[in-house]
Amino acid sequence: LKLEALRKYQILGEGNFGQVWLVTESESSSTPYALKIQAKFELIEGGQADTVLREKEIMSQVRHPFISNLVKTHQDTDFLYMLLDYAQGGELFNAIHADDHDGLPEENCQFYACVIAEALAYMHRRFIAFRDLKPENVVIDKSGYPVLIDFGYAKYIPEKSFTLCGTP
């Protein structure tokens, strides 16, 4: 995959330091990806350069069906790029707060909790703490399974840690 050949379709999300786009390899390709684009200057000014490097390192080391797969990374003079597998079901947050119902059925909650717990257990066996578990950081794949995304707060923790972070 060549990042310069990717075709952008729509913005999936925006953060303080960049955007995430829905992309495909070409107009004829049907395989969607999520392309996270972050401005280097903004990351450095915001003191987030180390965070992004740690996120890339951790994501490149984990391989699990319920953890977002980092396909490729790239950088140019102005931006950092992370190409990720795209989970087509959207955020768990949107499923919980959909207009046509109030919350999720108990069976769905149990299923999502078990799958997410398995992904977290996989990470913990590798001494990685996710540290920002919330519905906005879980997406649903095309088969209905939850997948962890956004490893900005993830950290290798080989021993006890007392750092507080994440979303309050």
Concise summary:
By secondary structure, the protein is an alpha+beta fold. Helices cover 26% and strands 27% of the residues.
What are the main properties of this structure?
five-stranded antiparallel β-sheet; alpha+beta; ATP binding; 168 residues; two-stranded antiparallel sheet; Transferase(Phosphotransferase), domain 1; ATP-binding; 9 strands; nucleotide-binding; kinase; single chain; Kinase-like_dom_sf
Name the helix and strand elements from N-terminus to C-terminus, one letter apiece: EEEHHEEHHEEEE
Distance between the termini: 37 Å
Residue-averaged pLDDT, rounded?
A: 92
Estimate the global geometry from the Cα principal axes: globular
CATH domain class name: Mainly Alpha
Q: How many beta-strand runs?
A: 9
Q: Which stretches are low in confidence, meaning pLDDT under 50 for 5 or more residues running?
A: none
Q: What's the CATH topology label?
A: Transferase(Phosphotransferase), domain 1
Report the sheet with the most strands, covering strand number, pairing sense and barrel closure.
5 strands, antiparallel
By secondary-structure content and strand pairing, the structural class works out as: alpha+beta
Please bin the fraction of helical residues: 25-40%
Number of helices: 4
By CATH, the architecture is named Orthogonal Bundle
GO molecular function, one term: cAMP-dependent protein kinase activity
Keywords: ATP-binding, Kinase, Nucleotide-binding, Serine/threonine-protein kinase, Transferase
Organism: Phaeodactylum tricornutum (Diatom)
Protein name: Protein kinase domain-containing protein
